[in-house]
Amino acid sequence: MDFTPLVRRHFMARLYEQLRYKDYADAIQQGVLVKLVEKAALTEMGRRYDFSSLRTYKQFASRVPLFSYEDLQPFIMRMVRGEAGVLWPGTTTDFAQSSGTSDGKSKYIPITRDALRHNHYKGSSDVVSHYLNLNPGSKLFGGKALILGGSFANALDLKPGVHVGDLSATLINRIPPLAGLFRVPSKRIALMSDWHEKLPALVEASIDENVTSLSGVPSWFLTLIKEVMARKGASCLHEVWPGLEVFFHGGIAFAPYREQYEKLCDMSRMHFLDTYNASEGFFAVQSDWDSTAMLLLLDVGVFYEFIPVEDSASSSPEVYPVWEVEAGRTYELVITACNGLWRYRIGDTVTVEQTHPVKIKIAGRTKSFINAFGEELMVHNADFAITHAALDTGAQVLNYTAAPVYAGDHTRGRHEWLVEFATMPESLDGFARSLDEHLKQVNSDYEAKRAGDIFLDAPTVVVARAGLFDDWLATTGKLGGQRKIPRLSNDRRIIEAMLKFND
């Protein structure tokens, strides 16, 4: 039975609420901020900064400093150990383990009951609302959602009842019973930590179901669906799941994977919808087929602030609320949220594509970039260039990472790219040249440094053996779930470790 017509009205009502984003962003966001500081007034953080007397954003911004994870870590670890009322009222029993990007150290992000209710699950519901609006003929609830998540694997000595692991593990573990009826696999399989056991179990659990949607990280899903297709002897994913209609993806940029998904699917039946769902919160969702820019969710328990990316390194940067951002500018994102993170610099950069309502694209990470030669290469530049280099040369890219090679006595500096291909390019040299040209196209600083081969040599590409990136992640304890490959690094620690595995 298709329940989509029965639930559509519920989801469409939410879209009418979001129409207020266009003209009332300031009122909505200031209302969110007031609720947050009122709720946390008696916490340790609230008493320290006298939340009970805060009335305006200006007061809040002048009194409460910006925080990095390192600043908040002592408070968060007290919460992990069971202490109540530290950053948010009550005790918190769920924490998302985030690997970070460049330094590889684990971070533990509180997932409070308020964060689950008002942010993560509300954001997930908003994704469905926008999809049903964009696809009026959808039969989404005529089948099941295949949700690919991580586990609670961690290296901490925890008290009974405390869970630390991938965000997706907590979302699956705490999912409301009614929503659980429309998803596969079972919690037991979804929360397995050993991917050598989990992958075949996922195939077995999903292969004969009527799967209508996929939700997860593109790189990990690619492995699963190829296993499913091989098991069925199918050349198209829709031979296995005829009712499949949408992939709700997030976690990493989809552009480098789009071509591979398009080749595996019947595109007359398939849609792709981008989301911005991080360990720290659910922030945005694509709301238009004509653009992958995502609508910033203004009423999901998160107050947003923005630091111009060129000012990020300043000890006292300029900080703007959402109603003061400008279209076309790239900002470092700062959040205050119902998970107890206050003016928290999450490490992501976003480009504001439009205002009224605000729509954004993820630009990259503040710590995932290459600026060894003044080129300021960001992840969104790299994703664009490697996607188009693959198109130019008939290649398919599974994974990549890049780092600088510094100048020697008789050599100039350059970028070295370690790339795992699903399909090799017609010419590796041609791929490198195309990559170089597309980087010049999207990054004027890079183009200037490459001019005349004076300051920066052309990039070189090293072919990664099959499975290298998975093998490297496994050695770091980060295989599976939401864990990400560091795309760009400003030093050679990561790429040198991976090159050793490539021998």
Main β-sheet description: 12 strands, mixed
Instruction: Identify the strand order in the major beta sheet.
Output: 5-3-6-7-8-9-10-15-14-13-11-12
User: Total number of β-strand segments?
Assistant: 20
Q: What percentage of residues falls in helices of 4 or more residues?
A: 25-40%
Low-confidence stretches: 100-104
Describe the fold and architecture.
There is one protein chain. The protein has helices at 4-18, 25-39, 44-48, 57-63, 69-80, 113-134, 167-173, 177-180, 187-190, 195-206, 218-232, 237-240, 255-264, 379-393, 428-442, 444-450, 468-475, 493-501; strands at residues 94-98, 107-110, 144-147, 163-165, 183-184, 211-216, 246-249, 271-278, 281-288, 291-296, 302-308, 320-321, 330-337, 344-354, 359-365, 369-370, 377-378, 396-405, 414-423, 460-463. The protein has 503 residues and is α/β, with parallel strands linked by helices. 37% of the residues lie in helices and 22% in strands. A hairpin with a 4-residue loop joins strand 14 (344-354) and strand 15 (359-365). The protein is built from 18 helices and 20 strands. The strands form 4 sheets. A 12-stranded mixed β-sheet has the order 5-3-6-7-8-9-10-15-14-13-11-12, with helices on both faces. Mean pLDDT is 91; it is low at 100-104. It is globular.
